[in-house]
Design a protein that fits this description.
34% helix; alpha/beta; five-stranded parallel beta sheet; 479 residues; elongated
Length: 479
């Protein structure tokens, strides 16, 4: 069934026992907190803590998750991802006597969760943490030799992802308060292990850029900048990281070269499968633009990423969005000119004509030379707004940095480039389609300058009012 048509947070339900719920205090959970999973994942995800203390996989256990867990709450949440952290309490003698049913019951739990939620969620199984003291009758030998092999068996049979928190934590008994449950530092460490394991098994996207990518002028950049919205569109099998930095230049000799930033170094640590590069806007200043240097440094950045990240990432070169004169009532002053063009100081402002006539052709030349794809942000972001001396789009008030509508458009344009259309359909908003295919609107409304207009995903305005049934793109990832 078709899924979200607009950027929608990815919902992750954490099913588990007291380790998930938090014990002896709720703030000892790995799910939420300053250094815990929700904070590490970021605002593109919403996490539900569905942990219940003492619960078991086994239906004949003393506290089976089947009857005393939070299945009803999980079903109502309709998660995209469900992680299952169960098995620790099953090692108790009172429960393990029914171990012959463990594989059957875990398989049934997975099937119940997947078949009761539409669209079908992705399920991740935990290999539970080690046990350093047989507190409460919980037994590490049974965990190692009984529970974990059975969890692996189910994961293999069902084609599920595994998150191994057992191996990395086995050498850290100090992280456990009673040999079973975690200290605050242990909960932080457990969250980090889960996050790293998750990242290793999804498609990682790094958005390299400047203040536009970073969303520096947005009221809530951590949740509305285009990389975050892009992740919401791409869905649960992706993780998009915003590597934008305000003021960044492509040119190594620029005022603030991206090359020397912590974000540049972080791209290599992140090891992305896909890199989008949105640099060149700051280079488009009359006092800074040197075309040969820009092309040389752009090519060098591509080579640096390609030769030092394994496996070699796919690189997409983004052609910058326009820059406008930012003028209010034709009064050219430093205050009203914002960032566009001269910015009140000759040659200091970002020049839209340089972007159009010099930066974009230079990027295309490098792309052709390197055999890389480009994504055009220039044409879509015009949104039917021509260059005029005394008009700046309301959604780009300073002439350079888009507001929330602009970031939504950027996210859609990049998403369309990373996806492959498999058909166009008009009418109903929900259709049964092949699994793995996502649906996004061909048209979406935007209110600008007091009037509502409709824009296609390539940013072109559609005249007239909203159609009764907007068209829909069915798309599937190219990668």
């Amino acid at each position: 069934v078709a899924v979200a048509q607009v950027p929608t947070r990815i919902k992750w339900a954490c099913v588990g026992n007291s380790i998930t719920a938090g014990y002896p205090l709720a703030n000892l959970t790995y799910v939420s907190g300053a250094n815990r999973l929700a904070a590490l994942i970021g605002p593109q995800d919403t996490l539900l803590n569905a942990g219940v203390s003492s619960t078991t996989v086994l239906k004949q256990g003393d506290v089976p998750y089947w009857t005393q867990g939070r299945l009803t709450q999980v079903f109502a949440f309709r998660p995209d991802i469900i992680s299952i952290e169960l098995g620790t309490n099953d090692t108790k003698p009172i429960n393990w006597q029914y171990n012959a049913n463990f594989v059957r019951d875990l398989t049934a739990l997975v099937d119940t969760l997947q078949n009761s939620i539409t669209p079908m969620p992705q399920v991740w199984l935990f290999l539970p943490p080690p046990i350093f003291a047989n507190t409460y009758g919980i037994n590490d030998s049974i965990m190692t030799n009984g529970v974990i092999p059975r969890i692996r068996q189910v994961a293999t049979a069902k084609g599920l992802n595994l998150i191994d928190v057992n191996t990395p934590l086995r050498t850290h008994p100090a992280y456990f308060s009673d040999g079973v449950h975690f200290t605050a530092l242990g909960a932080d460490s457990l969250a980090a292990v889960i996050f790293r394991s998750f990242l290793s098994q999804v498609t990682r996207v790094a958005c390299v850029g400047n203040s536009i990518t970073a969303g520096s002028t947005l009221a809530a950049p951590l949740s509305t900048a285009y990389p975050i919205l892009l992740n919401m569109l791409l869905g649960r099998a992706y993780y998009v990281k915003n590597e934008g930095l305000s003021g960044a230049y492509m040119q190594k000799a620029g005022r603030s070269p991206y090359w020397t930033t912590t974000q540049f170094a972080d791209v290599f640590r992140f090891k992305p499968n896909i890199i989008t590069i949105a640099l060149g806007t700051n280079d488009a200043r009359a006092t800074q633009w040197i075309g040969t240097r820009f092309k040389t440094d752009y090519g060098a950045m591509i080579d640096t990423f390609s030769n030092n990240i394994a496996p070699k990432p796919q690189i997409w070169m983004l052609k910058p969005m326009p820059a406008w004169y930012a003028i209010n009532n034709s009064s050219v002053t430093f205050i009203v000119m914002g960032w566009g063009f001269d910015n009140g100081i000759a040659g200091n402002g970002i020049n839209g004509f340089t972007i159009r006539d010099s930066v974009i052709p230079a990027i295309q030349q490098v792309a052709t030379q390197k055999g890389l794809p480009t994504i055009d942000l220039y044409t879509p972001m015009l949104m039917g707004q021509p260059y005029t001396y005394n008009a700046t789009p309301a959604w780009v008030p300073d002439g350079v940095h888009p507001r929330e509508l602009g970031h939504d458009t950027l996210a859609h344009v990049i998403y369309r480039a990373l996806s492959s259309p498999v058909g166009i359909f008009a009418g109903e908003s929900r259709h049964r389609i092949d699994r793995g295919v996502r649906m996004v609107p061909m048209l979406f409304p935007a209110r600008m300058n007091g009037s509502e207009r409709i824009f296609s995903l390539d940013g072109k305005a559609v005249p007239g009012s909203r159609p009764v049934a907007a068209g829909l793109y069915f798309v599937k990832p190219k990668i």
